Amino acid sequence: MRTLRSNEVFKPGAFPEHTYISRVSPEFSYTYEFRLSQALNTTGFLTSVIGPSKTGKTVLCEKVIEWDRIVSLSGSDFKNSQSFWTTVANKAGLSIEGEQTQISSIAGERVAGVTESKASSVKEKFLTGKDQVIEYFKENKLVLILDDFHYAPNELQLEIAQQLKDAIRKEFTSIVISLPHRADDAIRKNPDLSGRLSLINIEPWQTDALEKIAVTGFNALGVKVNPSLVEVLAAESLTSPQLMQSICLNLCLLLDIDNDAKIKEITEQNDLINAFKATTTNLPYKDVVKRLRSGPYTRGQKRKTFTLSDGTKSDIYDLLLKAIALDPPTTFIRLDELKERFDQILGDTPSKPDRNKIKSTIEQTQTIINTNGSIYQVFEWKDDVLYILEPLFLFYLRWGTHN
Ligand SMILES: Nc1ncnc2c1ncn2[C@@H]1O[C@H](COP(=O)(O)OP(=O)(O)OP(=O)(O)O)[C@@H](O)[C@H]1O
Ligand SMILES: [Mg+2]
After folding, report:
1. CATH: 3.60.110.10, 3.40.50.300, 3.40.50.1820, 2.160.10.10. Which one for 24-201?
2. Is any atom of ligand 1 closer than 6 Å to the C-beta of 213?
């Protein structure tokens, strides 16, 4: 029997205690953990963590801050109908009463006996709901994590920033987490907060760090993995530690590593391929692929088809997805390279689409992306380069059964 089970080691959806990898932030040449703990120790500053989705922003906070000091709220928890501090207090399990709450009964008695003008000066000694929350956080060394800040209603983002600005001066500790380019204006571009922000930008994962997840995890399970296979695992995970965790977990489950103690080494590329396919079954891109592949509506007209080198037929929108899915998996593909990929797929077919045709096909597909919901935001076409925004989508294109 192994000492650990594979689902304790590989955790695609939670804090990975046994496979947590520390990375160095390229901006500062310190680890992100060191950087975050320094930021938290800078009183009077707000910490802003920004990074692409699923790069480990939440997990980083969980690594650095003890769990019983974290009060975590999502941007979507904030509603117009409730004040910021009421929402925070509720989450922290604190009940605050109205805007003005007295600190102690002594203060209350003093109020009772004074004239009105004096009463207003005494009132300053009263704690508002807000002050009460700030005091409570300070006393208990709590940290407010505002996760997925981009989900907070637009009209509330500035209000939240304003409240935080005031609170951090009173030594309230808070971290705001959001996606790049999404709603960071209220925080990072807010002149009121300039000079009071600790900025942490989480970079996409490089292959060496991704490899460490697999190596550390399989090592904890007492299983060796051939280094060339570890490279393949990292290449397929693109920039996503979560994808790496998922693939490794599926690999363990398919090989039944938990119940078969005889398995001491993984050497077969085929096992990896089965794990890739298994990993795609939970990905939500079936409809996205179907929609992108069908291209813009043709009003009944039939589209030209091309014969591929393997004898099958495709129209140009299907060809585009096939070209994106081709080896090597990469997060950006230039137009020239896409043209080469088209040529490779089409082999000897005469009248292959030229660069302009490919470009207009991508532009049409981009329009479909732009006019659909967030799950469709899978790539972006800019300056003749196609940027993959969602690594899981590319992985699905490569290994999913959508044909
Ligand atoms: N440092 C790490 N070491 C190992 N695995 C990690 C690390 N960071 C993240 N992961 C893996 O990626 C998963 C997603 O991480 P996390 O939820 O922190 O990302 P996120 O950036 O907060 O995502 P989102 O943008 O969706 O909020 C984790 O559950 C874990 O499996
Ligand atoms: Mg998160």
Report:
1. 3.40.50.300
2. yes
Tell whether ligand 1 has an atom less than 6 A from the beta carbon of residue 13. yes
Residue 367 buriedness (CB in 10 A; 0-12 / 13-18 / 19+) = exposed
User: Could you give the CA distance from residue 132 to residue 26 in angstroms, rounded to a whole number?
Assistant: 39
Is 10 near ligand 1, meaning CB less than 6 Å away?
A: no
- Average confidence score pLDDT of the chain: 90
Question: Residues of the chain with pLDDT > 70: what percent?
Answer: 91
Check whether 97 has a pLDDT greater than 80: no
119 has pLDDT over 50? no
Tokens for 96, please give them.
């605050």
Ligand 1 touching residue 273 (CB < 6 A): no
Residue minimizing CA distance to atom 11 of ligand 1: 242
Spacing, Cα 373 to ligand 1 middle (Å): 23
pTM score, whole prediction: 0.88
What is the greatest pairwise CA distance in the chain?
A: 97
pLDDT at 215 over 80: yes
For residue 13, which of 50, 78, 62 has the smallest C-alpha distance?
Answer: 62
